[in-house]
Amino acid sequence: MKQKQLGLTTPPTGTWVQVERAAMERWSKLAVSSPRAAAVMMLMTSQMGRNNALVASQTTLAKMAGCGLNTLKRALAVLREGNWIEVRQIGPTGTACAYVVNDRVAWSGARDGIRYSLFSAAVLVSDDEQPDQAELGAQAPLERIPTMHPGERQLPTGDGLGPPTQPPLVGLEPDLPARQLDIEEAIATAPLTPQLLLEERLDSAPRPKRRR
User: Fold this and answer.
1) Domains in the chain, start-ordered, CATH in brackets?
2) Alpha-carbon distance 98 to 54, whole Å?
3) CA 172 from chain center: how many Å?
4) pTM for the whole thing?
5) pLDDT category, 9, cuts 50, 70, 90?
């Protein structure tokens, strides 16, 4: 029988979490007054993404925390009332929520009487909650969207699909979908040219001391 897996669709960045001394002292008091809430807080902190937010169902959180669903709900209530986390419901049922640590989410202005909030979070999912559980790991790969560096544009190549499509006219190529890299990401992922490599070595080389 295949073992069920838990996983993150966006893994946390790095292998450690930094906690200030005052927060650690409050956390230790929480562990005395409500051990389960402190344990759940530690679990969410270990799984949250770089934006201090985690999206997960209560069933998945309860499974990872090793407790029942009602116990988890009581622990979440303690954390929420103690201003440890902000909980934002996703969908009308409330079975999946976004749990935000440290910061309140920002809400945009009302549109048609409804306000929205957009923020990034790590997403924690369990395979036993998926309707296609038996097919997980055997699906066909998704279509890949190319990644372009700043200043680049796509030039469609190849024969394309069969009729009635035809190759585009020169200068009238379609604006195809692509993922745009920001400047910092482009610099971090760009290969070093011989000129850049030489400049980097010169910058890191020790400079001779001047004689007085």
Assistant:
1) 6-108+116-130 (1.10.10.10)
2) 6
3) 37
4) 0.58
5) very low
